[in-house]
Amino acid sequence: MPREPLAMSIDFTRCAGHGGCIDLLPELLTADPWGYPASAAGPLRSGVPLPPETIRPAREAARLCPRAAVLLDAGR
Amino acid sequence: MTRPGLLDPAPDVAAHLRRHGSPRPVTTLQIAHAGILGCGGGEFPLAAKLTAVADATATRGRTPVVIGNGAETDPLSRKDRVLLRTAPHLVLDGLDAVADLLRTESRHLVVHDDAFASLVRALTERRGRPPVALHHAAPGFVAGQETALIAALTGRPAVPFHSAERPTRRGLGGAPTLVVNVETLAHVALLSRGRPFTTRLVSVTLGPTPPRVLAVPRTTRLRELVPPRRPVLIGGHHGTWVDADADAPLDRLDRLGARLGTGALLVPATDVASTTAALLDRLAAETAGRCGPCRLGLPALATAWRRFIAGAPGARDDVRAFAGLLPGRGACTHPDGSARLVASALAVIDAPAMRHGAPSEVRRAS
After folding, report:
1. CB-based contacts of A61: which residues, under 8 Å, 6+ apart?
2. Is the pLDDT of residue B359 over 80?
3. Mean pLDDT over residues B307-335, rounded?
4. Is B133 helix (H, G, I), strand (E, B) or coil?
5. Which of B1, B190, B3, B2 has the alpha carbon at shortest distance from B87?
6. Residue pLDDT, tens place only, A25-74
7. Which of B290, B296, B327 comes nearest A43 by C-beta?
8. B205 vs chain A: nearest CA distance in angstroms?
9. Stretch B10-20: mean pLDDT, rounded?
10. Closest Cα partner for B90 from B13, B2, B198, B171?
11. Closest Cα in chain B, distance from residue A14 (Å)
12. DSSP one-letter string for B11-28
């Protein structure tokens, strides 16, 4: 059984602001003026915690991101 | 007579040994006891970094790498260059001490062109040690960042990269990697002669003159180095402004909400507002040009700042909004440091005029 992701981070060197993750996770992410994801829950560079109801859409976002910029972390 | 210090000139290894004596091996515990902090901006305890590398070495079974960082990319800081030209053997002794402690022969040192010849000469004078790979530092403000340094050593562009793991766990060639500032290495070299961590190098810029580099006791008060009743930028381009009546010892700048960081101290020729505008222009010009929030956000912040200081209505809100978007949204902390600069500039600009009889240490809200 794969471990559930506990945190999501964004690799901004890859992110091109497509916004798919923002659409899938509206409770967690907003778009900045240029379309890049921002989160009030913490720094996206190192990871923001994923509430349980966001885990499935987060997996979807990671799978669908055309730049593979959405990274899920099972925790340390 | 003062004891031998960081900037005592030692043109060759014989002079170096006469002045400082012979080193003895150092342990992580001794470094922890001495409280040696990183002198490259982060002020992270060196012992903690060493432990992280040692742990990664043990769990992953990979030989670690040590990289001495003399890239010094903030124009307000000149101390690493001066140290490398004046006392290269102190830096090299520190590099050897740390690498010996980690039991690795993988030793690298990155320096700029103006110190390169000094290091080549110093390395030829050292016998019976593992070789040190000497590298030219790449230009650019972000090139001295840990991951950018590692990228450059593998022939990639000298810009930061994203990684789920810190370099201490997985860095150069996938090995646990210690990136350590050259002044920090010099302090280890002094510790190996039984000298505690009691001095720091500072680069003091007063007005339009170039920075002046000094070695000073860590208990030196800020106002012993810069004039009274003037605002001061502590820590360079990613530093913190403190207001005209702020004072504290260099090892307690936290009382002012600041950190010595790279040791760069700036008293501007003009004022906080216009100086910050120039700093932001440079910060915006010096992004890696990759991460969108930084590549686009920093120029927007710089523009909003200029509108703000020109009195444009609503511009202060734009400044706060753009600055608020920066932290944690990029591969490195270039945007975070820029946001911190702006927040501290606003705090100083907004502070009430100096009150007579006020306490000399002003608590800075974060």
Report:
1. A8, A20, A21, A24, A25, A70
2. no
3. 97
4. strand
5. B190
6. 999 999 999 999 999 999 999 999 999 999 999 999 999 999 999 999 97
7. B327
8. 33
9. 92
10. B13
11. 8
12. -SHHHHHHHH-------H
Q: In terms of DSSP bridges, do strands B65-69 and A7-10 run parallel, antiparallel, or are they unpaired? A: unpaired
Q: Which long-range contacts (CB under 8 A, 24 or more apart) does B270-276 make?
A: B271/B231, B272/B231, B272/B241, B272/B345, B272/B348, B272/B349, B273/B309, B273/B345, B273/B349, B274/B309, B275/B233, B276/B241, B276/B305, B276/B341, B276/B342, B276/B345
Confidence of residue B356 (pLDDT cuts 50, 70, 90): very low
Q: Are A8 and A72 in contact (CB under 8 A)?
A: yes
- pLDDT (0 to 100) of residue B364: 39
Specify the pairing of strand B177-181 against strand B65-69.
Answer: parallel
Q: What is the DSSP string of B156-184?
A: S-SS----SS-TTTS-GGGS-EEEEEHHH
Interface test with B, best of A6, A28, A32, A65 (most B CBs within 10 A): A32
Contact of B318 with B308, CB cutoff 8 Å: yes
pLDDT at B10 (0 to 100): 86
**pLDDT (average), residues B306-310:** 98
pTM of the model: 0.94
The amino acid that residue B43 corresponds to is: E
Kindly state whether A45 is in contact with chain B, defined as any CB-CB distance less than 8 angstroms.
Answer: yes
B156 in contact with chain A, both atoms CB, cutoff 8 A: no
Q: Read off the pLDDT band of B322 (50, 70, 90).
A: very high
Residues of A in contact with B292 (CB under 8 A): 12, 15-17, 34-36
Q: What is the pLDDT of residue B2?
A: 58
